[in-house]
Specification:
mainly alpha; Serine Threonine Protein Phosphatase 5, Tetratricopeptide repeat; 2 domains; 9 helices; elongated
């Protein structure tokens, strides 16, 4: 199925930082894909809606969109998109300070990425999971997640390379205790 015009428009608007207009375009695209029978792309657009609403700090609407996308991906047995959506769900929950639910979603995403042997995607989720664990007061677990996540990345920014070196010291010291 060819890409729907509102999908492309949503991407362009998102890149231009016009989040409210991007959200409307992605919602339109979700409906158009659903009407055309492409539930995977409808779910992808709902996931995009959730990401945009996260950017707008519309937490409940973001949760609703991402949860709807997750339901579709589970029904379609699309494990890759399910994991991606769980990562977004965890990110939204983290920003809402719902740390237990954020941790559950991120843990599930990590498990799926492990099954799929998707190291780069897992690295991104481990970074979020590490942040959640640190906020929960589970500092050692959080540091380990951050360290493993950085080790899985193929390309690191200068800041990430510095953080990777910095994380080795506390985790090395704590392993020796």
């Amino acid at each position: 199925m060819p890409e729907i015009e509102s999908h492309q428009r949503g991407l362009q608007l998102y890149e231009a930082g016009q989040l409210a207009r991007a959200q409307a375009a992605f919602s339109e695209a979700a409906n158009e894909y659903r009407d055309a029978g492409d539930l995977a792309m409808a779910g992808e657009m709902l996931n995009n809606v959730g990401v945009v609403q996260r950017g707008l700090r519309e937490w409940e609407a973001a949760l609703a969109a991402v949860t709807a996308a997750l339901t579709l991906f589970i029904e379609l047995n699309d494990r890759q998109r399910e994991a991606q959506t769980l990562g977004n769900l965890g990110s939204i929950r983290m920003r809402m300070n719902d740390l237990d639910e954020a941790g559950n979603a991120l843990s599930e995403a990590v498990e799926i990425y492990n099954e799929l042997d998707e190291r780069e995607e897992r690295a991104f989720v481990l970074n979020l999971f590490g942040q959640v664990r640190i906020k929960q007061g589970r500092h050692y677990d959080g540091l380990l997640d951050l360290e493993v996540g950085l080790a899985d990345r193929e390309q690191l920014s200068a800041q990430q390379r510095w953080l990777k070196k910095l994380l080795k010291l506390p985790t090395k010291l704590l392993r020796g205790l």
